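Q: Could you write out the predicted structure for this multi-component system? I'm mainly interested in how the pieces pack against one another.
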Amino acid sequence: MSPNKVAGKGRPRAIRSVPDLLAHALAIERDAEERYGELADQMATHNNTAAEDLFRRLAQIEGRHVTQIQQLCVGVELPQRAPWEFLWQGGEGPEAMDLASVHYLLSPHEAVQLALGHEARAEEFYRGVAGRARPAAVRQLALQLADEEAEHVRWLQDWLQHYPPQATGHDDPDPPMEQG
Amino acid sequence: MGIDDLAGVGASSADAQAAQAGASVSLVIAGSGGAGVVTAGALLLEAAAAAGWFAWMTRSSGPQIRGGEAAAMLRFATAPIHCHDDCFDLLMAIDWDNIERFAAEIALDSRSLVIGDQDLGQAHESLLHSGPRQASLPLKRLAATVADGRPNMVALGAIAQLIGLPPPAMRQAVQTHLARKGQAAIDASLGAFQAGFDHAADLPPVRRLAQPQAAPSARWSITGNEATGLGAIRGGVRFVAGYPITPATEVLEWMAPSLAKVGGVLVQAEDELASINQIIGASYGGTPALTATSGPGLSLMMESLGLAVAAEVPVVVVNVMRGGPSTGIPTKSEQADLNLAVYGLHGDAPHLVLAPVSVPDCVRTAQWAVHLAEALQTPAIVLTDQAMGQSRAVIARPEAATDGAGRELARQTGDGQRYQRYAVTASGISPMAIPGTPGLAYTADGLEHNEAGTPSSRATDHQIQLDKRSRKLAAFDFGKQWAEIFDAQAGPGDIVIITWGSSTGPAREALERYSAKGGAARLVSLRLIAPAQPGPMAQVLGGARRALVVEQSHSGQFYRMLRAFYDLPRELRALHQAGPLPIRPGQILDQLDAWRN
Amino acid sequence: MDAPAERKKLAARDFKSSIKPIWCPGCGDYAVLNALTKAFVELGRAPEQIAVVSGIGCSSRIPAYLSAYGFHGVHGRALPIATGLKLARPELTVVVTGGDGDGFSIGGNHFLHACRRNVDLTYIVMDNQVYGMTKGQASPTTAPDWEGSKLTPEGTGINPFQPLVIALASGANFIARVSSSDPVNIAQIIVEAVRHPGFSLVQVLSPCITFRPEQQEWRDQVRTASVDFTGDAARAARRLMTDDGFNVGKVLFKGNRRPFAPDAASESCSVTELDREFEV
């Protein structure tokens, strides 16, 4: 959503407990794992092996993050939330991995940039939570999660070095095919 | 009875012959502008039924919604009848307005009696060219002798006297019919009836009906459209979606309250495209479903019938044929939607087409159609026509019947394998999952698909599914019901009449007359039009050197279909004519006679 | 219809089938697919209790991508299929999906009557103002001056179809517009739509990346509607009069018409009793 949209109700409220923060973190990582998996599938269907491989790796990495968060959740009763009840309602948060900015001729460089944007927003989210949270335990966990995201950002920036921007852009000499 | 014996007989002999009790009596009541012709016909039929006779009644009318000219054609007999005779014994004209509209339908000969009211004019010349006898009955004046008396009741009185209908039966019919209008109305009608009855003693005689059996078997009064609806409900239909169209609307109108009584649902849809798709949806959900329409509506449904074939969803579509093409003649009968029903789907889309052979057979065939559609998971088009659908017949009570198992349902295998909705089987029939069943969710699709139902454009998948959908029909044992076979008493002989639908009635009667004269022939009326049954047909045809194909179609659609799918005897003749006039038994008999040598 | 707290809650991925979508990466329909899976989780129904019915078009491929029961029908006829299914099986949750061409051109008549009839269905239309599957012709919601189609190179020149206006005028009981840029919001609206009795319309602005690449701008043009839903049709109509097509994210209208449903099937007689009316 554009920044100049009218704010709806559901302005972010503070996260008040560790279980609540863990619930949010789990949702972020799970969604990221699924979205990267879906993007990998889309690239596979459209024969873009390079982008597919990249998204699969990202999905796997997110899968490991999920496992890490799940370990933190052992013995913790997490609040049950509908997807729109999370703090980033309105798409300004990490959930908004922009599916619309992909293209079947996405280059690995662009794929990494997509992931980079997601991780950067996740870091921003956790820092924001840390800044607003009252309980110390919440602040501490939020900062920890933010730092982890910052590390993901650094990895991805490294990857960018290995995948220079593509010269041809999204240029396909073949016209679209009708299907029905 | 040997009608041809009477050819060329003079007037007094005609009177004498007419006075004989016959196997059937045929009459027409005609009139216009509120004369009450339709009511008179209905009362007469009710009275005759109560008196123990079998009956057949059709109606014709002008295009006006009310006040138009109308004619009720009735035939009574002591045994079941399924069509009109070659000629009418009696024409009772309540008035002469626009009666020439019906001249072609009111076949008369020199023995027929035309009765009209001289005070209202003379018979139109179009009715007189065959030289019928004429008489006058002062209907208007006689009606005036009774308070609120009406000419149509006077006419009924005269008819009752002429044909030998017992007055108590008519009195009972009047009382039932007019009960809600009060005693005064009943008295007026009975008074007028009596006036006509008494006065008719002075009229020339017409053929009279033999007395019915002392204890007649159980009989029903029913139209073909009602019979079709009943058969469908007996077959298990519990969802109907439909759009009104002449002459099929009564199927829907009868089913609306009847379905509700047995826990079913009827929806009036916005058009035929909605109707066919609603029943596909209901059937996909597990409920046997049906719609009823006529030619123009069936044309609209073709695409979605193909969807039902491809996705293997059972549905039944009743098509009550009318004069075509296009808007055609909505109130008249024809047998010219055969091509549409058999060939109308795009692609190779094998499916079922059935056709009842008579009004009572509508019950059985509609029920059978539901069973077949369910068992074979495919659409079944049931072809009746206006003559069958809107005619009211007094028939012997149809027997109840049971068919085998219906839809084969899928069960969870529990082996974790994905459910194969369109799995290849020996029979070609794949067990069907019903929504709500866990573990068996699938997407039905009009796109060609693989065994799991996933869309596929592969050659192998297309071949496999085409083979399967074709095999499931070709491999099915339809049993003896595929056709109705009538043998003449004299044995099969070497002539076979092949026909279908409403043409069966006159063909049957022609066969009976031919047999009474010593002729030997056989009649085959196809109840299963598609898929073709060449094996059983060959058995029936065995020994026949000649075949006469009879149908009510200008281009001979049935004849061409038979030639396409069946091996027929070398000597082949076709009696085919367009509607709206029904084929008469005498026309068919003439063909048989001409061929006898 | 929600699951009791004790029952194991399914995850969104449990509502996806093993078939991978063939939509172009960047297609707005991916958001709707995700939204549906999330919505089904929140509704608490098992996959076999849900049926998804579609017509023909890119968005109509959705049923195969879900683990619920599905029907991929012919062009324009999803609503009657869904109507028949729901009336025969009222206990199922029936969702209808399709595009603007399938729904408002060939399917226009059924759309109008479905709103009138108000059977308990939820109709999700993925509106990209183009016929994608047949390579980019104008659809009923295309602006009259769009010149991107070979079939209408000078634009259609005719007024676009207004689905929300038609829905309101025809009696739809729930009307909302959402944007594919916010799948979580779509999920929330779908849950509300399914829960609301009667015919629910959810129009999704869902850009076509291949034939209408300029629609990527919609992301920045849409705005969250400034007011919550109304139950007053006249008020909803006034809002639509000043609607530019980019107000999304909230329900416009929730009516209180009784949904069409046949009287509860109470068998008052057996089939053989139907014979009686014919007996002479």
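A: Regarding packing and overall arrangement: The two ends of chain B are 23 Å apart (CA to CA).
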